[in-house]
């Protein structure tokens, strides 16, 4: 077992995702650590506001005890500046105190929202919350309203084809359920709210972008400050998905750009095939394979993600061709670009689950960054476990130069000479070792190349390494 794989936070992350995906199937409102229960923990106004408009929603506050409860404070967090107004037990305002609910009884709270300006001046989602303080415990009901003209998805299921005439905003999750198929057309912009995800559960997703007509996935905060802030949403999550495709997409500023959990038994190929796609500036991972997920990636730039460009955990398969798997993260938790661990310790059961890597190919690619080693392994083989790695015609940065047959025609530790890493310009000059004609190790190619690069340049008989062709 190699010792270089850095300690990472995927155990916590998996727990969060397990809870989130469970909530996609069943939401149990009303659970509380305090003295009050609520009929709804989030009030979402699903009317699109592009001009003056208002509507009203309601929820109930329950006292499940057999004794009278006094609510010490009720406060609309945004105060008088909030577009929301509340009416509690017949009283209207932004603050209330000493409200009593008899044992086993409940009270209604009515919420109204008015957006008095054109939606173009507002965020995609306008939020506030109502704070209830009882016996020193604060509890909250969240409020949200759509602030601009868009297609909004709030914990819904989807199939067919999304129109691309205006943006799509995901609040909570947009789900693709068992045996359903969703197609996202070129030029579609998908904005995800904090903690939200596009969730494919035993269904199929096709993202059909095109060169210069990419499908964009990013957070829903459109202020300039958030242009390069990671962790604004979760990502695209595939759970036992049917064979799916992503072509010409940009996935940025999330937590895990593409997360693949397990593989559907009906699949004869890969869980997800990703082509001509940029996955950058995600807080944890660009591409995360867990417990048997299978991915094929060609002409992809996966760079400057917080922990790993690609993480494989508890087994799975990958076929990577003409991709840039790069570090260069500015976050303090930066680790090597590629991390491969074929086991996972389940703290709940106490078991160590070991998976296989039946196909572990990286061809014609670049694995590079700021670390001394940009690919690390932490594998165990208790017997009967396949660990099939095959790395060819690839530039790799690694302290220990490997001499096994798993590595062929490798360029070790040469600077790729990227134009400007700081501005995400990963093109390179003709003098770069990535140029297919300047280094004898790159001749001939070890596998037929794709016909064009991510920047739509035809690939010659001796193609360059990575996602790009030099121009």
Q: Any key phrases for this structure?
A:
mainly beta; Immunoglobulin-like; Pectate Lyase C-like; 18-stranded parallel beta sheet; 10-stranded parallel beta sheet; elongated; disordered N terminus
Structure explained in plain terms:
With 471 residues, the protein is mainly beta. The chain has two domains: 109 residues, Immunoglobulin-like (Sandwich); 292 residues, Pectate Lyase C-like (3 Solenoid), CATH 2.160.20. The protein is 3% helix and 43% strand. The chain has one helix and 40 strands. The strands form five sheets. It has an 18-stranded parallel β-sheet that branches. It has a ten-stranded parallel β-sheet with strand order 12-14-17-20-23-26-29-34-37-39, with no helix packed on it. A hairpin with a 2-residue loop joins strand 5 and strand 6. The longest helix has 16 residues. The protein is elongated.
């Amino acid at each position: 077992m190699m010792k270089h794989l850095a300690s990472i936070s995927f155990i916590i992350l998996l727990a969060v995702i397990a809870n989130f995906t469970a909530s996609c199937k069943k939401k149990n409102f009303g659970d509380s650590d305090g003295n009050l229960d609520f009929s709804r923990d989030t009030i979402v106004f699903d009317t699109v506001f592009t001009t003056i408009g208002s509507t009203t929603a309601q929820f109930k506050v329950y006292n499940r005890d057999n004794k009278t409860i006094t609510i010490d404070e009720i406060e609309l967090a945004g105060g008088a500046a909030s577009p929301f107004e509340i009416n509690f037990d017949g009283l209207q305002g932004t603050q209330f105190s000493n409200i009593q609910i008899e044992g086993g009884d409940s009270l209604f709270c009515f919420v109204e929202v008015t957006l008095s300006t054109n939606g173009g001046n507002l965020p995609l989602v306008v939020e506030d919350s109502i704070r209830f303080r009882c016996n020193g415990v604060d509890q909250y009901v969240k409020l949200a309203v759509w602030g601009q003209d868009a297609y909004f998805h709030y914990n819904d299921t989807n199939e067919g084809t999304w129109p691309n005439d205006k943006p799509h905003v995901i609040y909570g999750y947009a789900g693709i359920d068992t045996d359903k198929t969703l197609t996202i057309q070129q030029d579609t912009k998908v904005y995800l709210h904090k903690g939200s995800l596009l969730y494919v559960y035993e269904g199929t997703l096709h993202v059909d972008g095109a060169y210069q007509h990419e499908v964009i996935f990013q957070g829903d905060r459109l202020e300039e400050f958030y242009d390069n802030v990671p962790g604004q949403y979760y990502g695209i999550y595939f759970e036992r998905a049917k064979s799916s495709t992503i072509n010409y997409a940009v996935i940025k500023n999330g937590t895990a750009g593409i997360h693949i959990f397990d593989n559907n038994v009906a699949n004869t190929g890969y869980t997800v095939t990703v082509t001509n796609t940029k996955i950058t500036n995600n807080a944890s991972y660009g591409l995360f394979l867990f417990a048997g997920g299978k991915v094929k990636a060609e002409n992809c730039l996966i760079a400057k993600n917080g922990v790993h460009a690609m993480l494989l955990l508890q087994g799975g398969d990958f076929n990577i061709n003409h991709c840039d798997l790069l570090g260069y993260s500015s976050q303090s938790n930066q680790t090597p670009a590629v991390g491969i661990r074929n086991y996972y310790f389940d703290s709940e059961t106490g078991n160590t689950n070991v998976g296989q890597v039946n196909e572990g190919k990286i061809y014609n690619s670049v694995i590079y960054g700021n670390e001394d080693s940009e690919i690390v392994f932490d594998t165990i083989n208790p017997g009967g476990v396949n660990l099939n790695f095959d790395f060819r015609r690839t530039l790799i940065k690694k302290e220990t130069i490997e001499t096994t047959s798993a590595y062929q025609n490798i360029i070790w530790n040469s600077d790729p000479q990227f134009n400007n890493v700081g501005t995400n310009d990963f093109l390179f000059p003709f003098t770069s070792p990535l140029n297919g004609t300047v280094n004898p190790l790159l001749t001939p190619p070890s596998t037929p190349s794709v016909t064009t690069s991510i920047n739509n340049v035809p690939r010659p008989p001796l193609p360059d390494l990575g996602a790009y062709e030099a121009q």
